[in-house]
C-alpha cells in the first residue's frame, strides 16, 4: 500500500525501485525469473513491510484505529505514513514530490515488461490517477479511501480521511518517530543496490 515510501527509499537504483514496486505481486517460486538487483528490491520491500508492521509507532497507530477499523487498520497506517512523507518529501528526500513522481514513474514504465500483469495494472492506475501526488492532501487521501471502499471487506475505510484529520497530530508524531528509523533500516539495501 505505501508505494511512496517503498519507491522513495529504493530510488534511484532501478533494480531496487522495480523490486520494491512488484514486491507484493511476486511469489517466492517466481523469484529466479528476475535479476539479482530486482530480487534485492523484492527482499527490501518485504523487509520494509516487516519493519513497519513491528515498529512501536505502527503498533500505537493500529491500537488507536483497531476498535473502528479492525483488520484494515494496517492499510490506514501505510497510507497515513505516505501522507506525511508526501508533505515533507522535499525536506527528507531532497527533491520535489512532483519531480520524483515524474522520474520514478518513467523508470517503472521502462521496466513494465518484466512486471507481473497485476503489477502492470497497478502501475497504469498509479500513473492515470496520480497516486503519489494525491497522498499530499486530505482530498487526495479521501479519494484514495473512497476507491478502496468499493473492494470487498474494505467499506469502513471510506472514513479514513476523517479519522486522520481527527487525530492528525498523534499520527504525525508517530510518523516523525518512525521514518528516520526506517531510512536507517534501508541503508544496507541501498548500499548493495547502488554497487
Q: Runs with pLDDT <50, length 5+?
A: none
Q: Using only CA atoms, what is the Rg?
A: 16 Å
Mean pLDDT: 95
N-to-C SSE series? HHHHHHHHHHHH
Category by helix and strand content: mainly alpha
- Which percent range describes the beta-strand content? under 5%
Query: What is the share of helical residues?
Result: over 70%
Give the overall silhouette: globular
* First-residue to last-residue Cα separation: 28 Å
Total count of helical runs of at least 4 residues: 12
List the keywords.
74% helix, 195 residues, mainly alpha, single chain
How would you characterize the overall build of this protein?
This protein has 195 residues and is mostly helical. It contains 12 helices and no strands. It is 74% helix and 0% strand. The chain is globular. It starts with a helix and ends with a helix. The model has no long low-confidence stretch (mean pLDDT 95).
Amino acid at each position: 500500500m505505501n508505494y511512496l515510501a517503498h519507491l522513495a527509499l529504493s530510488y534511484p537504483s532501478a533494480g531496487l525501485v522495480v523490486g520494491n514496486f512488484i514486491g507484493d505481486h511476486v511469489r517466492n517460486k517466481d523469484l529466479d525469473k528476475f535479476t539479482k538487483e530486482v530480487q534485492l528490491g523484492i527482499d527490501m520491500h518485504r523487509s520494509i513491510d516487516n519493519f513497519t508492521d513491528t515498529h512501536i509507532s505502527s503498533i500505537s497507530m493500529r491500537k488507536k484505529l483497531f476498535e473502528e477499523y479492525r483488520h484494515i487498520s494496517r492499510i490506514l497506517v501505510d497510507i497515513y505514513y505516505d501522507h506525511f512523507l508526501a508533505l515533507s518529501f522535499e525536506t527528507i528526500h531532497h527533491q520535489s514530490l512532483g519531480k520524483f513522481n515524474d522520474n520514478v514513474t518513467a523508470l517503472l514504465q521502462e521496466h513494465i515488461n518484466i512486471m507481473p500483469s497485476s503489477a502492470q495494472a497497478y502501475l497504469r492506475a498509479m500513473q492515470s490517477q496520480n497516486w503519489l501526488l494525491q497522498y499530499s492532501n486530505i482530498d487526495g487521501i479521501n479519494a484514495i479511501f473512497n476507491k478502496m471502499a468499493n473492494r470487498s471487506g474494505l467499506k469502513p475505510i471510506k472514513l479514513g480521511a476523517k479519522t486522520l484529520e481527527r487525530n492528525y497530530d498523534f499520527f504525525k508524531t508517530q510518523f516523525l518517530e518512525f521514518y528516520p528509523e526506517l531510512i536507517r533500516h534501508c541503508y544496507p539495501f541501498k548500499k548493495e543496490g547502488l554497487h
